[in-house]
Design a protein that fits this description.
The complex is a heterodimer of chains A (about 475) and B (about 260). Chain A has helices at about 1-15, 40-50, 55-70, 105-115, 120-125, 145-150, 160-165, 165-170, 185-190, 430-440, 445-460, 465-480, and strands at about 30, 90-95, 130-135, 140, 155, 195-200, 210-215, 225-230, 235-245, 250-255, 255-260, 265-275, 285-295, 305-310, 315-320, 320-325, 330-340, 345-355, 360-370, 375-380, 390-400, 405-415, 420-430. Chain A is α/β, with parallel strands linked by helices. Chain A has one domain (about 100-480). In chain A, helix 2 packs antiparallel against helix 3, helix 3 runs antiparallel to helix 9 (about 185-190) and helix 11 (about 445-460) packs across helix 12 (about 465-480). The radius of gyration of chain A is 22 Å and the shape is globular. The model of chain A is unreliable at about 1-20 and about 120-130 (pLDDT under 50). The two termini of chain B are about 30 Å apart. The longest helix of chain B is centred in the last third of the chain and has 21 residues, at about 230-250. In chain B, helix 6 (about 150-165) packs parallel to helix 7. By secondary structure, chain B is α/β, with parallel strands linked by helices. Chain B has a single domain, classed as P-loop containing nucleotide triphosphate hydrolases (Rossmann fold). Chain B has helices spanning about 40-50, 75-80, 95-110, 120-130, 140, 150-165, 180-195, 230-250; strands at about 1-10, 15-25, 30-35, 55-65, 65-70, 80-85, 90-95, 145, 170, 200-205, 215-220, 225-230. Helix content of chain B is about 35%, strand content about 30%. The chains are: A alpha/beta (about 475), B alpha/beta (about 260).
Chain lengths: ~475, ~260
């Protein structure tokens, strides 16, 4: 920890004063649809993507389901509703053909990923992370495909999976998040443009970290990606997604669906570093991050772990959940949600215990600064048959300054007496006394704040893959720079 | 080493003066004790000298090694060798004692163009310092003051003092909340640290601590001023007669306001 910390602190020194550094736009030619949504648009989208008929029908059905649904309002956030008729549902960089190497990618887009520090180039890939890059709606390039294929791992864009592995997609898509699950999952099912697909065969440990980087570039486009990860019996995989967007005055919608399926003894670790543009001081612009993420521990002894570092977006509504169906399965949720300026986050998890002796752990750390509002919302449900099950939840909130808010909404229900649920919650304020104490020991004010925050989130960040822990620390430091004092 | 001249200080943004003209001179090799009843301004003096942002100096000056420090931030004063052992040490969860101390040690070293210690060197250095307060090394890997007993927190302050090796230390009510065994350990620790190059200012309500750490100078603080100074016998007098008797005596002599 001490080495990590001092690295983080050094990094910080060079970054003081830095604003949202991913706020640039990339100049590429687009192939756009007319704005708005209709059955024709949905069919056209499917046609342009050269999808098989079953997929087109899936979309059209989802569209009609969505039409009947109402936009939810139960969360602790207020914002201007997205104008669905004024949105682009398909926006793709014009360069079309399937890319086999980095050289085929539009140089402007390649430059974007270089600016973002995403290691797309093969030589950098030796560091051992396979990347799928999604630019606006379309997967640009998936690296390390061949090496993964040797291990039998399929890692490709969702569009490709629909064509190349229809039997797997048909079997698992919408099996965890049904089309009608909620307003945004229905919308996503109708208009999703791309995303990542990952399949780990029986008894295979995925030989490298998998990673997807999402980038919204086009101002008027919504981003609707769809990710599906399936780990067969005894398989294991660690997957990370990162997100950035340019700064625009208009709000942009990001409504993704992520589904995870873990069969017997399988292990899926899903990590997110979310740094969408969060709007300016006055709350103008920024991404609406309305995402449905759910995993099912379908087989016995299976394990799904969500780790998230949520720092961006104007409004976040997100509850990565685990359905613990297999006996002895384990679900985990580790979250750090940071809100500053006028950001609003309503995030948490659901742990649904169905199998016997299932266990879940929830560790949620909320940090609010500025005039932001940060809510934890979590549900733990233990069903009648889930005997001997256990949940342990910790929800800690930290307030920086006087104008922000932190809220906790735990929902707990247990239907059998042999199970136990434990919930702890604390709220603290980064106080002048703490900062003074560290400064009296010779530490600068900025480093003192960084230290206090690092200490607060340590239990969560240690769950991130090592390659990304440093990035996460940096992000936190930049994000909270200047929020105290 | 330290010279405080006619120091007046108020709570930042409020019009309530707490220090009303403090004068104090501390030389290298000296141990001072400032005694006084609750609310007399003893702790405020320690905080103002170490740069707590809650207080504002409205008049007078603080010279440390000849340099005025009232405009410096707390960390800059720490770099010069000023240390405050807190009356209520603050908890910082998730950051270990060792991490804090290595950061602090190396930051101070950098500021003074001294060589920093790498993690291994620091490990040796810090382990040696544990003896000062008879603590086990698991003390190092625990989060700063988190879940510590009152006695452990106070010991930790003296341990940090031993590691950072300050020039001038203020010990703010270090004896409060300590049982007799812990008081002995802490006092012995302070005595081990004291030498002819550094100086210590103890702030205490009771004479008890002074039986273990013998001051060269004793000052009595009342109403935001040091109203009487003397040797060890002044502390004994206070213990015997209380602050009230002293106050009366001063009123009779026309010395108190």
């Amino acid at each position: 920890m001490s080495e990590e910390l001092s690295d983080g602190v050094k990094e910080l020194e060079s970054m003081i004063g830095e604003e949202y550094k991913y706020g640039f736009t990339t100049d590429v030619e687009y192939e756009d649809f007319p704005k708005g949504i209709s059955e024709e648009i949905v069919r056209e989208l499917s046609r342009v993507k050269e999808e098989p008929e079953w997929m087109t029908e899936f979309r059209v059905k989802a569209y009609h389901a969505w039409k009947e649904m109402e936009e939810p309002t139960w969360f602790n956030a207020t914002y201007k509703k997205p104008d669905f008729e004024n949105m682009l549902y398909y926006s793709a960089p014009k360069k079309k053909p399937q890319l086999d190497s980095m050289d085929d990618v539009d140089p402007n887009i390649r430059e974007t990923y270089e600016k973002l520090g995403i290691p797309l180039e093969e030589q950098k890939m030796l560091s051992g992370v396979a990347v799928d890059a999604v630019f606006d709606s379309v997967s640009i390039f998936t690296s390390f495909k061949e090496k993964l294929a040797e291990a039998g791992v399929i890692f490709c864009s969702m569009s490709e999976a629909i064509k190349e592995h229809p039997e797997l997609v048909k079997k698992y898509m919408a099996s965890v998040v049904p089309v009608r699950d909620n307003f945004y999952s229905a919308l996503n099912s109708a208009v999703f443009s791309d995303g990542s697909f990952c399949y780990i065969p029986k008894n295979t440990k995925c030989p490298m970290e998998l990673s997807t980087y999402f980038r919204i570039n086009n101002m008027e486009s919504g981003q609707f990606e769809r990710t599906l990860i399936v780990a067969e019996e005894g398989a294991s995989v660690s997957y990370l997604e990162g997100c950035t967007a340019p700064m625009y005055d208009e709000n942009q919608l990001h409504a993704a669906v992520v589904e995870l399926v873990a069969l017997d003894d399988a292990d899926i670790k899903y990590s997110t570093i979310q740094n969408w543009y969060s709007g300016d001081e006055n709350g103008k612009g920024g991404i609406y991050n309305f995402v449905t993420k759910r995993g099912i521990c379908k087989g016995k002894n299976s394990h799904i772990s969500w780790t998230q570092l949520e720092t961006g977006s104007a409004v976040t509504l997100k509850y990565p959940s685990v359905i613990l169906k297999g006996d002895n399965s384990v679900g985990e949720f580790y979250s750090v949600a940071v809100t500053t300026k006028k950001q609003q986050a309503d995030t948490g998890t659901k742990m649904i215990h169905l199998g016997k002796n299932t266990k879940s752990t929830i560790i949620s750390k909320g940090i609010s600064a500025g005039q932001s509002n940060n809510s934890y919302r979590g549900e733990v449900r233990i069903s009648k048959n889930a005997t001997g099950s256990k949940n342990y939840s910790v929800c800690d909130s930290m307030l920086i300054g006087q104008e922000c808010g932190a809220h906790t909404f735990p929902y707990i229900s247990s239907e059998n007496p042999s199970s136990s649920v434990e919930h702890e919650a604390t709220t603290s304020r980064v106080g002048e006394e703490q900062i003074f104490y560290l400064m009296q020991r010779g530490i600068s004010e900025q480093d003192a704040i960084s230290m206090i925050i690092n200490g607060f989130v340590k239990d969560v960040l240690k769950e991130l893959p090592l390659e990304f822990a440093v990035e996460a620390n940096k992000l936190l430091d930049v994000k909270l720079e200047g929020s105290v004092g | 080493m330290l010279e405080i001249k006619n120091l007046h200080a108020s709570v930042e943004g409020e019009d309530i003066e707490i220090l009303k003209g403090v004068n104090l001179k501390v030389n290298a090799g000296e141990i001072h004790a400032i005694m006084g009843p609750n609310g007399s301004g003893k702790s405020t003096l320690a905080k103002v000298v170490s740069g707590h942002p809650e207080y504002e100096v409205t008049e007078g000056e603080i010279l440390f090694n000849g340099e005025g420090i009232t405009e410096l931030d707390a960390d800059e004063r720490a770099h010069m060798g000023l240390f405050l052992a807190f009356q209520y040490p603050v908890e910082v969860p998730g950051i270990t004692n060792k991490t804090l101390l290595r950061e602090a040690y190396n930051t101070i070293a950098r500021a003074n163009d001294r060589e920093e210690l790498d993690p291994l060197e620091f490990e040796d250095y810090i382990t040696e310092k544990l003896d000062v307060i008879e603590m086990k090394d698991q003390f190092l890997s625990r989060s700063i003051n988190t879940g510590f007993s009152g006695g452990e927190k106070k010991k930790n302050e003296i341990f940090q003092m031993a590691v950072l090796n300050p020039v001038l230390s203020f010990l703010d009510e270090t004896d409060s909340g300590l049982d007799i065994d812990a008081l002995k350990v802490v006092s012995e620790g302070v005595n081990k640290i004291a030498n002819d190059k550094n100086a210590i200012v103890m702030i205490t309500h009771y004479q008890r601590l002074l039986n273990y750490i013998k001051p060269d100078h004793v000052h009595v603080m009342m109403g935001g001023k040091l109203i009487k100074s003397g040797g060890f016998e002044l502390a004994e007098e206070l213990e015997a007669n209380g602050y009230d008797a002293l106050e009366k005596e001063l009123v009779l002599n026309g010395e108190a306001q």
